[in-house]
């Protein structure tokens, strides 16, 4: 008891500081995770810039990789040997709500109920040296998978939940709107699902990277009408699956309009600002097109993500835009909010 560890806390607008807090102790059925790498996700970026008004100070971090440091009572050391590498799905699964019982744990009513009783600074707690997690949240990964790549388990899992809703069949046309990190993970996953992948992205450098990642067709939505262009590629029908990874409502409307009859249009990104747009009920009636969303990773998609990374079926290397030791976390956050970066990773 009384041992200290360091965390990276957002303390005010555009400022992070390294703070010392009490080291967590693993309770029954818990693992003390020694965190090695933590990626800075959009949520933490918005908290840093104060677009999101989480109370400060705040220790974010949920895209984490590391190793088993200590086991609480009841955890099998054969399953989780000390020193063994793990990643963690940090969001809660209560196991007893309506959604959990239907196998849709990403909508669990206790999703964000953090056990903060031991925490001196609020937050998800991944941006620190240690975190106590439930053994059920931990996934073993191979020792040879670098921590920086393993930290993609969470964002890739979010994307795989989205991909699943696209119900892609071999040979389908898939449009991904937006070539940020989430767009790129959609490109790679859709390609793996056997689709012809079309990316809409204004930035030429991002289009180039998407092509390196296997994207079949890329185009600039500022140079041509995206809906007409996608229709021209698909005999006028539109794409079987469209994934909107941008937060712009005008784009959300285009996403629906470029989806084929019987197709699936998935609103992956949250919308800022959240402006409603019109959909014709008659068009839905006649087209049978499905318009839906995707939020957070399910247990199933997290498991798939771990498999894809562990077996090197998906390699996120090109999406790592920088790695910073936690002492330079200020630089890391400043880099993360720049539009030209994909994922910035803080190491501990
Ligand atoms: Zn995330
Ligand atoms: Zn639940």
Automatic annotation (TrEMBL):
<dbReference type="Pfam" id="PF08240">
    <property type="entry name" value="ADH_N"/>
</dbReference>
<dbReference type="InterPro" id="IPR013149">
    <property type="entry name" value="ADH-like_C"/>
</dbReference>
<comment type="similarity">
    <text>Belongs to the zinc-containing alcohol dehydrogenase family.</text>
</comment>
<feature type="domain" description="Alcohol dehydrogenase-like C-terminal">
    <location>
        <begin position="183"/>
        <end position="309"/>
    </location>
</feature>
<dbReference type="Pfam" id="PF00107">
    <property type="entry name" value="ADH_zinc_N"/>
</dbReference>
<keyword id="KW-0479">Metal-binding</keyword>
<dbReference type="InterPro" id="IPR011032">
    <property type="entry name" value="GroES-like_sf"/>
</dbReference>
<dbReference type="GO" id="GO:0016491">
    <property type="term" value="F:oxidoreductase activity"/>
</dbReference>
<dbReference type="InterPro" id="IPR013154">
    <property type="entry name" value="ADH-like_N"/>
</dbReference>
<dbReference type="InterPro" id="IPR036291">
    <property type="entry name" value="NAD(P)-bd_dom_sf"/>
</dbReference>
<keyword id="KW-0560">Oxidoreductase</keyword>
<dbReference type="InterPro" id="IPR002328">
    <property type="entry name" value="ADH_Zn_CS"/>
</dbReference>
<dbReference type="InterPro" id="IPR050129">
    <property type="entry name" value="Zn_alcohol_dh"/>
</dbReference>
<keyword id="KW-0862">Zinc</keyword>
<protein>
    <submittedName>
        <fullName>L-iditol 2-dehydrogenase</fullName>
    </submittedName>
</protein>
<dbReference type="GO" id="GO:0008270">
    <property type="term" value="F:zinc ion binding"/>
</dbReference>
<feature type="domain" description="Alcohol dehydrogenase-like N-terminal">
    <location>
        <begin position="28"/>
        <end position="143"/>
    </location>
</feature>
């Amino acid at each position: 008891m009384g041992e200290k560890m360091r965390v990276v806390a957002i303390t005010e607008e555009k400022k992070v500081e390294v703070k010392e807090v009490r080291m967590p102790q693993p309770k029954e059925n818990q693992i003390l995770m020694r965190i090695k790498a933590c990626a800075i996700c959009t949520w933490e970026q918005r908290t840093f810039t104060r677009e999101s008004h989480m109370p400060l100070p705040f220790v974010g971090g949920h895209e984490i990789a590391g190793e088993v440091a200590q086991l609480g009572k009841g955890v099998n050391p054969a399953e989780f040997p000390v020193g063994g590498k793990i990643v963690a799905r940090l969001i809660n699964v209560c196991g007893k709500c309506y959604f959990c019982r239907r196998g849709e744990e990403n909508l669990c009513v206790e999703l964000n109920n953090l056990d903060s009783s031991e925490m001196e600074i609020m937050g998800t707690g991944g941006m620190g040296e240690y975190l106590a997690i439930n053994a059920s949240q931990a996934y073993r990964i191979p020792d040879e998978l670098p921590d920086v790549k393993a930290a993609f388990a969470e964002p890739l899992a979010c994307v795989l939940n989205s991909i699943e809703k696209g119900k892609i069949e071999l040979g389908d046309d898939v449009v991904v709107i937006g070539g940020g990190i989430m767009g790129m993970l959609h490109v790679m996953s859709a390609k793996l699902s056997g689709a012809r992948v079309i990316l809409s992205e204004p930035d030429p450098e991002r289009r180039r990277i998407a092509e390196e990642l296997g994207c079949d067709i890329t185009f600039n939505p500022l140079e041509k009408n995206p809906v007409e262009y996608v229709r021209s590629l698909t005999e006028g029908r539109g794409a079987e699956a469209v994934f909107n990874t941008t937060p712009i409502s005008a784009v959300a409307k285009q996403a629906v309009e470029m989806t084929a009859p019987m197709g699936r249009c998935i609103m992956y990104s949250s919308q800022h600002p959240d402006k409603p747009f019109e959909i014709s009920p008659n068009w839905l009636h006649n087209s049978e097109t499905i318009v839906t969303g995707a939020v957070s990773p399910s247990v199933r998609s997290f498991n798939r993500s771990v498999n894809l990374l562990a077996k090197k079926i998906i390699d996120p290397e090109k999406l790592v835009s920088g790695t910073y030791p936690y002492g330079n976390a200020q630089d890391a956050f400043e880099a993360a909010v720049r539009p030209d970066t994909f994922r910035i990773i803080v190491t501990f």
